[in-house]
From TrEMBL:
Transmembrane segments: none annotated. SUPFAM superfamilies: S-adenosyl-L-methionine-dependent methyltransferases. It comes from the Bacteria. This is Methyltransferase type 11 domain-containing protein. Gene3D superfamilies: Vaccinia Virus protein VP39. GO terms for molecular function: S-adenosylmethionine-dependent methyltransferase activity. The lineage of its organism: Bacteria, Bacillati, Bacillota, Bacilli, Bacillales. InterPro entries: Methyltransf_11, SAM-dependent_MTases_sf.
């Protein structure tokens, strides 16, 4: 469907183990409403690949729905409505990135459409591993 809607763009299917992009060649990686569909162990694989393809000053920009202690009604709605099986708390998302050796900065937390808690944060690798 994406190819039909955007014929001038390139789309590829890949797995988390081997993103077909050169080492240290990407400035920004945008991850928008994806992580809550992926289990923790696969996210760690993606984080390794993201580190490989990011330039030394590269950054991951993330926006995800998140569970918030203060907004129980919103949490229930998101769990009921959303197809993602892995909606996490703010700390759970940040802990995943910290475990992958990323430094995170929360930019903003907000509510979308009255009932969706969203978190917007950036992540940068703390130190490049040997490739």
């Amino acid at each position: 469907m994406a190819r039909r809607l955007y014929p001038n763009h390139k789309f590829e299917v890949f797995d988390e183990q081997n993103i077909p992009i050169d080492n240290s060649s990407i400035d920004y990686i945008f991850v928008i409403a994806v992580l809550h569909h992926i289990p923790d162990e696969l996210i760690q694989s993606y984080l390794l690949e993201f580190e490989r393809i990011l330039k030394p000053e590269g950054k991951i920009i993330v926006m995800e729905p998140y569970l918030c202690k203060e907004r129980k009604l919103n949490n229930r709605f998101m769990i009921w409505y959303d197809d993602g099986k892995y909606i996490r708390s703010e700390h759970d998302y940040l802990d995943l990135f910290h475990a992958g050796r990323y430094e995170c900065q929360v930019v903003k937390k907000f509510t979308k459409c009255f009932l969706y808690n969203e978190i917007f944060f950036t992540a940068v690798p703390t130190a490049k591993r040997e490739l």
